[in-house]
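Input record, target 12 of the design panel.
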């Protein structure tokens, strides 16, 4: 038997079934018309946001990194809860505009921004977190062509990385950001060119559950920002301090202590060097805001035994939930939290493998999981499906097509 990840707080049984937003899994599937289905809960997103606001300093803005989940209704809903939106392509810019975000609240990071993407962002008035001198030069030229001062910040490639981070994006050679040694000269160049200088973006990693690691990284971010600004002789109107707040996906993962992170940050922001005294600070979070608020529901289409191993074969799979299958940046596959949704309060009775419908051995949703006895027609719930699910999975693989999505 292999342990399942912990079911996130906030899910309960109703009439024996998993309920999301007060409605049973089978009622939600009925309304959607079919499985597989992603269901995202407004209540849980609101709750995570409220917990964060309570823990973080008032002075800190909270941005949503929309790559975690760009579903239109969710994007619209979260707009009223957050202070800004972080995007990574012109496609996301368009989705953000359609969801009602104003360009002022949007910042655009990402390596390999094409000229037409820079053009769209500058014309709209979005802040660009430039990732190289080449990109800064192109943005400045586009600004001159458009006769506007582009809003430019520098994304710094920090020399440290977030300890315990799921995906390392800082420290050493990286395609992201400008190496610290090159930052002061580039900052001067941007300011001297008459751009609307916005400051720095320093992102050092993701999916950390260790508060001390985040506290340490945030301390480094403040130190580096002050040092670079001092060297360049520029102000820091805005400092995007990155994010990296993780959620528990696997057995023995424990939730991040946001109270500890908030208290440490409060202290640091209360004792800032002069050069950062007027700075507006922000963190950017994806999975922490939406990951636990989403559930992927898929129906069992077959149940069979092969060499003494029972398989529950579902109509879903890695084409919607690549991360849960263990094929999205994990070294060792471990089980996400999984349940039989329409037998949510039943006792575990057997050990089974839950798999998807794709013709590849990679398509696993739970290995050797201890679950209530389930039959063809029952619903399997995969939790932690609110981030990096639908939009981060190869939906067209094997001609399957996308899952339905629903915000409740
Ligand atoms: C992906 C990404 C995020 C969001 O990461 P989460 O782990 O979902 O919080 C934030 N900032 C940048 C620059 C990213 O690339």
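The sequence produced for target 12 reads:
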């Amino acid at each position: 038997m292999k342990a399942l990840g912990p079911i996130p707080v906030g899910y309960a049984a109703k009439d024996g079934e998993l309920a999301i937003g007060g409605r049973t899994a089978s009622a939600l599937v009925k309304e959607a018309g079919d499985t597989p289905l992603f269901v995202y809960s407004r209540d849980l997103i609101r709750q995570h946001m409220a917990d964060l606001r309570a823990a973080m300093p008032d002075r800190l803005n909270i941005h949503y990194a929309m790559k975690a989940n760009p579903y239109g209704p969710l994007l619209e809903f979260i707009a009223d809860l957050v202070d800004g939106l972080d995007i990574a392509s012109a496609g996301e810019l368009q989705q953000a505009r359609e969801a009602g975000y104003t360009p002022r609240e949007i910042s655009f990071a990402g390596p390999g921004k094409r000229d037409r993407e820079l053009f769209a962002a500058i014309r709209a008035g979005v802040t660009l977190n430039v990732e190289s001198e080449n990109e800064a030069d192109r943005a400045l030229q586009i600004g001159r062509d458009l006769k506007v001062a582009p809003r430019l910040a520098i994304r710094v490639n920090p020399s440290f990385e977030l300890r315990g981070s799921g995906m390392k994006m800082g420290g050493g050679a990286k395609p992201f950001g400008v190496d610290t040694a090159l930052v002061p000269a580039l900052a001067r160049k941007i300011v001297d060119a008459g751009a609307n200088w916005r400051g720095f973006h320093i992102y050092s990693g993701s999916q950390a559950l260790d508060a001390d690691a985040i506290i340490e990284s945030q301390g480094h971010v403040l130190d580096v920002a002050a040092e670079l600004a001092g060297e360049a002789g520029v102000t820091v109107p805005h400092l995007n301090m990155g994010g990296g707040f993780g959620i528990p996906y696997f057995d023995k993962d424990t939730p991040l202590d946001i109270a500890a992170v908030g208290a440490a940050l409060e202290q640091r922001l209360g004792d800032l060097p002069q050069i950062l005294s007027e700075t507006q600070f922000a963190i950017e979070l994806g999975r922490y805001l939406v990951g636990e608020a989403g559930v992927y529901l898929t129906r069992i289409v077959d149940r069979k035994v092969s060499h003494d191993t029972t398989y529950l074969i579902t109509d879903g799979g890695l084409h919607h939930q690549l991360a849960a299958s263990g094929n999205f940046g994990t070294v060792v596959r471990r089980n996400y939290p999984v349940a039989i949704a329409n037998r949510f309060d039943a006792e575990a009775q057997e050990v089974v493998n839950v798999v998807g419908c794709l013709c590849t051995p990679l398509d696993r949703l739970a290995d050797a999981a201890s679950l209530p006895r389930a039959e063809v027609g029952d619903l399997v719930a995969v939790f932690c499906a609110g981030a990096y699910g639908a939009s981060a999975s190869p939906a067209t693989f094997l001609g399957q097509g996308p899952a339905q999505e629903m915000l409740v």
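The two ends are 34 Å apart (CA to CA).
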